[in-house]
Amino acid sequence: MTAMEKVQPVVANHCAADLVQCFNRTFDTPYNTRLVGGGEEPIYLPADQDEQFHRIVFTHDYFASALHEIAHWCVAGDVRRQQVDYGYWYAPDGRSQEQQQEFEQVEIKPQAMEWIFSVACGYHFRVSADNLEAGLGASESFKANIYQQVLAYCQQGLPVRPQQFALALAKHYGVENPFAPHHYQLENL
Fold it and tell me: pTM value?
């Protein structure tokens, strides 16, 4: 098998509405959570007196934004899912080197899950350093850590929610075994 045959082919058509449908069908009832597009900024909003569902809002209709926000939801535990944006800090674009390092540390698991979701739907994954203004791209160690986390998930399995979502995506897009380690290559990050 050549290196080109090892990587899952990219599916041509990707529509954020498909992600919304797939996510909501999978998690609407058991987790009272819906994926919603069209946001100016991504945000997680827990249910409240005005809205009965928890909402994962992704930016505009961006496919990658939806996958990334779903990954954050999959990482967040029960207590965090009761807080706006899971109660996490977020320093906007223009972070210092130290803030960027902290950002990269907390982004390893979500971005590893996002990569698996991307493979499950035949979509090209790109690491997000999310700090363009400071000119700090994703560090090589960050990429290596994401890669190692993906391999760990492939070998040990994902937690229940991301496993369910990856399988739902793979079924929808006709992708075979998104958990096979040969789909993931460090040099592709």
Answer: 0.89
State how beta strands 43-45 and 54-59 pair: antiparallel
Among 40, 47, 73, 39, CA closest to 159: 73
The CA distance from 28 to 22, in Å, is: 10
Write out the residue range of the structural domain in which residue 76 sits: 12-188
Tell me: the pLDDT tens digits for 22-77? 999 999 999 999 999 999 999 999 999 999 999 999 999 999 999 999 999 999 99
Q: Which residues pair with 55 in a beta bridge?
A: 34, 45
**Residue 90 domain-assigned (yes or no):** yes
Evaluate the CA torsion angle 81, 159, 31, 19 in order and state its sign. Answer: positive
- Asked whether 16 and 24 are in contact (CB, 8 A), the reply is no
Buried b (16+ CB within 10 A) or exposed e, 107-137: bbbbbbbbbbbbbbbbbebebbbbbeeeebe
**Domain-embedded: residue 145:** yes
What amino acid is encoded at 131 in this protein? N
Is residue 30 assigned to a domain? yes
49 burial type by CB count under 10 A (0-12 exposed, 13-18 middle, 19+ buried): exposed
**Total count of domains within the chain:** 1
Our CA angle for 76, 121, 142, nearest 5°, is 55
